Amino acid sequence: MQKDQLPRHVAIIMDGNGRWAKARGMSRTQGHLEGVKRVEEIIKSARDIGIEFLTIYAFSTENWSRPQDEVSMIMRTFIMVLGQKAKELAENGVRINFIGRHQGVPQEVLKAMDDAANVTMNQIVMTLNIAFNYGARGEIVDAIKSIAGKITEGKLKVDEINEKLVGAYLYTKDQPDPDFLIRTSGEERISNFLLWQLSYTELYFTDKCWPEFNEEQFLKALNNYAQRERRWGSVKV
User: Fold this and answer.
1) Which of 94, 96, 111, 155 sits at a 20 to 30 Å CA gap from 43?
2) Strand segments (E) across 70-164
3) Residues with catalytic annotation?
4) What is the DSSP letter of 8?
5) For the whole model, what pTM was predicted?
6) What are residue 12's DSSP bridge partners?
7) CATH code at position 50
8) Half-sphere exposure of 154 (CA within 13 A, CB side)
9) Could you tell me if 125 and 119 are in contact, meaning their C-beta atoms sit under 8 angstroms apart?
10) Can you tell me the distance from the alpha carbon of 210 to that of 191, in angstroms, rounded to the nearest whole number?
11) Are strands 94-99 and 126-134 parallel, antiparallel or unpaired?
12) Residue 35 belongs to what domain range?
């Protein structure tokens, strides 16, 4: 693949940790831990290939409804991984940026997020967006509230609202929209993920569960993207 065949921004819905573990007689915890290994592998691969932005769906606002012991395990693992990997990511030019709401997130998790963001804040090779406590409808609601607040304060007029302005109030402001979305585990839906930003994104679904989605699978997906012709509603002449 040539540089101009690569997507600038790749988004991934990392699905299937639990199903992968169940199929092998393992606990869901083991599935999540194996999934962490794939996260590390794909981040490194994306960085080495030249992807500028990588957005991973780590924990949705709906995931709090999972069994409490599983949620607690995910929180502990999240804190541990951020603490262990932030410095390494910074050394490799990766900036960590968190998107999602802070409300309801345990303080120790918020601290780990802040620490990781601060350690990597000056890196420019690749931006890693981690969607945590994230829901796209909530993101759009938050943007609407912020815009409404500016109007109430007299700092913005209604007729100044356009798509560019709305984008400036989203969690991913100042970033290009994803060119390519990958979802693992055979599910073919976007599950309240980046609803505004995915308007013209190329979609790729694979039956592989996330713990099976290694660098080889990632390169296969990128090669698929490279064969596509993006027209954004126009017709090739």
Assistant:
1) 111
2) 94-99, 126-134
3) 15, 63
4) S
5) 0.95
6) 56, 182
7) 3.40.1180.10
8) 0
9) no
10) 16
11) parallel
12) 3-135+178-226
